[in-house]
Amino acid sequence: MFDIEEELKKLPTSPGVYLMHNEKDEIIYVGKAISLRNRVRQYFRESTNKTSKIKHMVSNISYFEYIVTDSELEALILECNLIKEHRPRYNTMLKDDKTYPYIKVTTYEDFPRILISRDMKKDKSRYFGPYTSSGAVKETIELLRKIYKVRSCRKKLPEDIGKGRVCLNYHIKQCNGPCMGYISSEEYKKSIEDAIEFLNGKYDKVMSDLEERMYTASQNMEFEKAAEYRDLLNSIKIIAQKQKITSEEMMDRDVIAYASEDFDAVVQVFFIREGKLIGREHFHMSTAYLEKGEQILESFIKQYYSGTPFVPKEILLPKELNDSEIISEWLSKVKGSKVRLITPKKGEKEKMVELAKKNAKLVLTKDKEKIKLQEERTIGAARELFETIGIETSDGSYRMEAFDISNTAGMLSVGSMIVYEKGKPKRNNYRKFKIKTVTGPDDYSSMREVLTRRFLHGMEERETLGEEDLELGKFSNFPELILMDGGMGQVNVALEVLDSLKINIPVCGMVKDDHHRTRGLYYNGEEIAIDTHGEMFKLITRIQDEAHRFAIEFHRSLRGKNQIKSILDDIPGVGETRRKSLMKHFKSIEEIKNASVEELKEVPSLNEEVANNIYSFFHH
Predict the structure, then answer these.
(1) Which residue segments constitute the domains of the chain, with CATH numbers given?
(2) Rounded to an integer, what distance in angstroms lies between the CA atom of residue 158 and that of residue 111?
(3) How far apart are CA 579 and CA 440, in angstroms?
(4) Cys-Cys crosslink for 252: which of 3, 312, 315, 330, Cβ 3.0 to 4.6 Å?
């Protein structure tokens, strides 16, 4: 079960995107954050002022998940991609298909241009971005035009060379005049290649040159010019923020990374479709101790892609696989076209693999903490209970059975038996009992009947099955501790039954206070105080509640089927007509129970077989 309060404590302070889910597993909100911990916590704070829409959204949150990124920029772009992909109900302010600007280099032209674009197209151009600031993009394009003398006109070159007049940019030395044939295509493309190198991140030389110009202008008291250089530097710094969330190649690819510890591993998969990261999924794997990463990846790929309907063109991995060629050939056959397994060593692909690895480590750490907490609540609490009363477990299962009785004014009395192993319910071992030998609201006698029947059945099965097949029986697996919902009285009933059957099992009572709340344990004739805030106390409470719930549900189901249903209906051969005849002849269940076979045969419509069935039902 997802514990929101516990999960809030584990949120990282990293930038990233968070996804809110409702109980139907639908994504109802996607948001970004500079600090995931600070942002997500705000939704669940009582003191935080929220709009009615946000309050309504929070009330529908069943659980949340998150994806960490390396920067706020990446978080923003990923947020946009995920909102477009999932259309969450509460992201109304972001449903306007907002797009982010790219820098486009028309490399397919003989004299390429550098432009701003709002989307990526398959037009043989080179795209860089997306970026969050259109102003910075425009300034950077202006800077590139100034530095590399790139044309900004729309003329079709070389067709229009020599047509018209040279433009102003040529005269102010911001264009080399390709429209007039003043520069060859080869020489012009060399400038474009330098501009692309700059956009690829090699801008140290340009930034150093601008800084020098800025300081020189400042020293010469040319403050307007210095401010112009400063603004250009700031634009470059914004452009320089690396992001990996969208790729210019517009390719379908999966990015796979893993994190492992001891016998556990988490494999993280990022789904990139048409160049955009649109989602992710993580998978838990049980591994051999310290199993190699290549083996984890290879096992995952074989299992995952044998069952998924879609195989991408590329799969990025953190390590090379021993059988990469064979696996690539198999995936290519599954897809129907070439599939490549790539282990990137540098660049954006390598950084995307690192990002997937970072998320895998986060999931593994979070789940390890969850497992540790779960163990404290279950097997840790069971161990503490056994240690508190001073008994040892033979096999480490800490098997416990608890019993409860439910009836309405003594009618339709039923008993329940629930089983806990390692601090968790083992529901396939639960058993129900209809009380046969007790009339009226006598819980002690009813409990005596339930316990006697339970252990007699178990003893019979043990004789039949033998030690090796005890798990096959319904009652043959005995508990290491019996918990009675009450103090000395219920414990003594259980001890009497066990003593009569010569069975040695410790019995512990769960003692309640005047408000019907558990206050301690009753064991070996003494009451033992317990910490009512600890995990052991919580486990005891869960066991009590579960035994009570199981008995009440059984009782209600019987009562709901027929409010006047008789115990006689459970006897083979007794239907509605014979039940009415029996009640008319004997007046009460107690008289029927005490009747001999000969007396039963006196009832009209009862033959010897049915009379024997009735007698056996009450006396065996």
Answers:
(1) 4-94 (3.40.1440.10), 102-239 (no CATH), 253-374 (3.30.420), 385-561 (3.30.420.340), 567-619 (1.10.150.20)
(2) 8
(3) 20
(4) 312
